[in-house]
Write a structure and sequence with these properties.
This protein has 186 residues and is an alpha/beta fold. The protein contains seven helices and five strands; from the N terminus they run βαβααβαβααβα. Residues 144-183 have low confidence and may be disordered.
């Protein structure tokens, strides 16, 4: 069995959950077996667990899905460093993967967070205070190239991308969007 993973990363409010939902819906509509996992949901606890513990949870869940025959994973994570991203990819243990980075201007992130989160949520002030720092430490926002991933394995999207940093369609290529099945070679 060959396992493929799409890992969607970005700051809170960058659109990860929307992308995960859209991918899930498209795959389900085509009756393609898959699992969608949000890493932050695996680490939702008070007192917080470590990144290493989150990655253990992710690995265990992926192993359970693989044992059930799942070959396609859609994973969302707020990767605040290349090491964190490497931990996510390592925990999934896919044979092949595509990392998709989403970013947006910190003002846009704040607006989206305020619109999404309940005003009485106790973590809202801390999250809003951390938006600038998270946006600056996000591997997507830091130049789109990392020692682990280069432009060939790293797609980019979101609200703040410059066209110079986004992958370009080869000249003369068909301008029609690729189907999800074709992108994932299904």
């Amino acid at each position: 069995m060959r396992v493929f993973a799409v890992v969607v990363i970005g700051a809170p409010g960058s659109g990860k959950t929307s992308v995960l939902t859209a991918l899930h819906d498209a795959l389900a509509d085509d009756d393609v077996a898959h699992a969608v996992i949000e890493v932050e949901a695996l680490a939702w606890a008070h007192l917080p667990i470590s990144d290493a513990q989150s990655f253990q949870h992710l690995a265990s869940l992926c192993d359970a899905y693989k044992a059930a025959g799942c070959e396609l994973f859609i994973v969302g994570a707020t990767a605040t460093s290349v090491d964190y991203l490497a931990g996510v990819v390592s925990a999934v243990e896919a044979d092949e993967y595509l990392v998709v980075g989403l970013d947006a201007d910190p003002r846009t992130l704040r607006k989206r967070i305020v619109a999404r989160e309940p005003p009485e949520w106790s973590g809202l002030p801390q999250l809003l205070d951390a938006v600038d720092e998270i946006a600056l430490t996000d591997p997507v926002a830091r130049g789109r190239r990392t020692p682990l991933f280069d432009r060939r394995s790293f797609a980019h999207g979101g609200g703040g991308a410059s066209s110079a940093s986004a992958p370009r369609r080869p000249e003369g290529a068909n301008s029609k969007p690729l189907s999800l099945r074709r992108v994932l070679n299904l």
